[in-house]
Amino acid sequence: MSPGPEQLAAVALLALVAHGLKGLTGFGPATLFVPVASLLFGQPAAVAASGVLDATSGAALTAADRRVRRGREGLLTGVFMAAGTAAGVVALTRVPEAVAATALVLAVLAGLAAVVDAGRRGPVGESRPLDARDGVAGLLAGFVGGLTGIGGPPLVVHLQRVLTPHDLRAVVTRVLLVAAVVRVATFLAVGDDAQVADALLLAAVCLPPQLAGLLAGARLARRVSPARLAAVNGAVVAASILLAALGALL
After folding, report:
1. Across all residues in the chain, what is the average pLDDT?
2. Please, what is the angle between helix 193-221 and helix 165-190, to 10°?
């Protein structure tokens, strides 16, 4: 059954809020968007639509940041994450819904772990060169992202221990952009026709509010204290856990 006007309006508002928070805090909007959209449209369509939105927001951030655009660090991690993403999307189209929903809850919990760990450890003072260990982390995060749409937090859990915040932002932006493109391409190749159609419709409806949210959030970020930003991050992750758990139980 095709999404109704009320559902489309709800998901457009969701995209506005989720990407407004991304513009405000830099925190991945998928932890909020995917659990809610999964309740409305099913997890495969939500994951694919989120991939489109991740790709467009990643492209916008890359175009706006010269350092992200010109950097090469993270290439190996990106290649491994692309492979893991493709495998995760294939798994999403094959595994039972309960398994995919449980994986979504675990991915959101990883997001909470990233926030807590970052606050406990504090920022890294000096980055180390990325190597094969980081490629393996990218492979695992890619698989989680392909299966649940939330690959950023597992990757950040690892990379925030080896990269400074500035380097982390640049590397994660590049890697997640590649993973998002691979997620969408793989879903188009292996997904069910009805799910693909729903995902494309959702993405088209969400693109304008997504861009508006990014712009508004980025402007608001200049006026908000770091302590309040940290509180917003924690609240978003807590809400995402509740929503993902609700989706797994329904």
Report:
1. 80
2. 160
